[in-house]
Amino acid sequence: MLLRRITRVTPAAVKFSDHQKGRRFTAQAAQKIAPLSNNLVQSLERIVGKSNVSEANAVREQHGRDESYHTCAPPQVVAFAESVEQVSGVARLCNEHKVPLIPFGSGTGLEGGINAIKGGVCLDVMKMDKVLAVHPEDFDCQVESGVTRKALNNYIRDTGLWFPIDPGADASVCGMCSTSASGTNAVRYGTMRENVLNMEVVLADGRIIHTAGEGRRTKKTSAGYNLTNLFVGSEGTLGIITKATLRLHGIPESSVSAVCSFESIQSAVDTTVQVLQCGIPMARIEFLDEVSVDACNKYAKMDMRVAPSLFLEFSGSPKSLEENAEIVGEIVKMNGGSDFRWATDVDERNRLWKTRHDILYACMALRPGCKPYSTDVCVPVSNLPQVVVESKKYIDEAGIIGAYILGHVGDGNFHILFIMDHTNEKEVQTVLDISHRVAVLAQELDGTCTGEHGIGIGKRELLLREIGENGIQVMQQLKQTLDPNGILNPGKIFF
User: Fold this and answer.
1) CA 340 to chain centre
2) What is the pLDDT along the chain (495 residues), one digit of tens a residue?
3) Are the C-beta atoms of residues 256 and 283 closer than 8 Å to each other?
4) Rounded Cα–Cα distance for residues 321 and 40 (Å)
5) Which DSSP symbol is given to 451?
6) How far apart are CA 159 and CA 112, in angstroms?
7) What is the secondary structure of 416-460 as a DSSP string?
8) How many CA atoms lie within 13 A of 50 on its CB side?
9) What CA–CA distance (Å, rounded) separates 143 from 69?
10) What is residue 111's DSSP assignment?
11) Which of 415, 463, 453, 421 is nearest to 435 (CA)?
């Protein structure tokens, strides 16, 4: 496959200076924050109850960081909401006092989306954890903001349905809406954008809206603006999601998984492209480079060949599985793949995919005392081989130890996981520079700087480069209309 030559020039208006590349939030970057008044804290206690308000350092620090590389930025106070009325009351109070309000779910984000960089009130919605309705005949359900994806699937396991969006972590479903999460099953089931039918959202001034109309749960509509997808991916900057109506899917009749290895990254990614071009309905296609496979072997006591590898999953009827597996096997062989291992038993398949999901811990175990930094990009599948191969070159040229390439290559989305010493500024800057170069390369190849992690703090300059000044201005106008005082999760997505 010929590699595409990049000839585009970055517009001068959106070029980055060296100090902007790979910017991260640090304690030194924090602004001086005025203390909250006692009256405001007492008003919070009246709204949510005194036991649901905390100014303890441990609680604040827990709510001041996600799983990203950004330094903890704790809020000044944490409030725990138990109903949409309480969320509305807190929003109204913060808006009146012009105090920042940061929604908090499970805290599993990867771009600093919950860091309280301007102080204020953190509103934890995880106590709102009820599955409100399940309609098996209509393949949908309604959940509150604190329901996690695993809890939802446990709740509906006897219906023959499941919610397949799987970002790896046991994230809250409404948090997944907020970041437009996806994961390993996106190649078949899409992302959160395709699986959210309606949402209840509390605006900055306390108003409560239903993005598709109260109680509506149709699979399609032509009624007005698509408010649902406006809030999906808004990262808490336009409103606080308190309920979501979601699509459910039938559990496949049968499934089979496989892992195979290749001599090169190029061969593995070429195989992915060719499988998709053949129209084979894959459930999952995951890529791991050789260092990732080695980490999995050591952590999970596996014996996979240490080489670039694909994790595959097929689902459907037994006959279709056999036919599709045979075709994929031929494509793998044509690209020099080998060590094709099948996992048909449920326990065996679960072990294989648990190994994939535990990759973060597997990699961290190889460099004790260091912390992870993960970045992701997404490109059209036809451009995937070039961006993965070039990214590997960037890593090798920089001499980085502890960099792992993996991802949901079935939809053109891949990740680079770095295990780095956060106290070594030179190493941190090298990692951030590589991340920046990979994101720019993805953009040059018609892709995006983030497929599922979101913008948060770390990719604000890249968003400007991606959609341009006019696009940013439209976003800011929307923000100004819905949040004129700028209280909702300030400093995220754009400056």
Assistant:
1) 30
2) 334 444 333 333 334 443 344 455 655 455 678 889 999 999 999 999 999 999 999 999 999 999 888 889 999 999 999 999 999 999 999 999 999 999 999 999 989 999 999 999 999 999 999 999 999 999 999 999 999 999 999 999 999 999 999 987 899 999 999 999 998 899 999 999 999 999 999 999 999 999 999 999 999 999 999 999 999 999 999 999 999 999 999 999 888 999 999 999 889 989 998 998 898 889 999 999 999 999 999 999 999 999 999 999 988 888 898 899 889 999 999 999 988 888 888 888 888 888 888 898 899 898 988 888 999 999 998 898 899 999 999 999 999 888 999 988 889 999 999 999 988 999 999 999 999 999 999 999 999 999 999 999 989 999 999 999 999 999 999 999 999 999 999 999 987
3) no
4) 60
5) S
6) 36
7) EEEEE-TT-HHHHHHHHHHHHHHHHHHHHTT-BS-SSS--TTTTH
8) 1
9) 30
10) S
11) 415
| Measured CA distances, 98 to 86, 91, 107, 181, 380 (Å) | 18, 10, 24, 30, 42
Q: Exposed, middle or buried: residue 329 (CB in 10 Å: 0-12, 13-18, 19+)?
A: middle
* β-bridge partners, 311: 259, 286
Position 410: which residue type?
Answer: G
| Predicted TM-score (pTM) above 0.70 | yes
Is 117 buried (19+), middle (13-18) or exposed (0-12) by CB count in 10 A?
buried
Beta bridge partners of 341: 259
Q: How far is CA 189 from CA 45, 148, 184, 196, 410, in A?
A: 42, 18, 10, 12, 11
* C-alpha span between 54 and 76 (Å, rounded): 9
DSSP 148-191: BHHHHHHHTGGGTEE-----SS--BHHHHHHHT---TTHHHH--
DSSP 28: G
- Which pair of tokens denotes residue 241? 């999601």
Would you state the structure tokens that stand for residue 245, as one six-digit string?
Answer: 């109506």
C-alpha dihedral over 106, 107, 109, 115, to 10 degrees?
A: 140
Give the position of tokens 């995937």: 384
Assess contact for 147 and 130: CB atoms under 8 A: yes
**DSSP labels for 245-270?**
EEE-EEPPSEEEEEEEE-SSHHHHHH
Specify burial of residue 157 (Cβ count, 10 A radius: 0-12, 13-18, 19+): exposed
State the Cα–Cα distance between residues 103 and 483, nearest whole angstrom.
14
- What is the spatial distance between Cα 397 and Cα 177, in angstroms, rounded to a whole number? 37
Residue-wise DSSP of 382-399: GGHHHHHHHHHHHHHHHT
What 3-state DSSP class applies to 478? helix
Q: Which residues contact 20 (CB under 8 A, 6 or more apart)?
A: 461
Residues 149 and 242: beta-carbon distance below 8 Å:
no
- DSSP code for 336: T
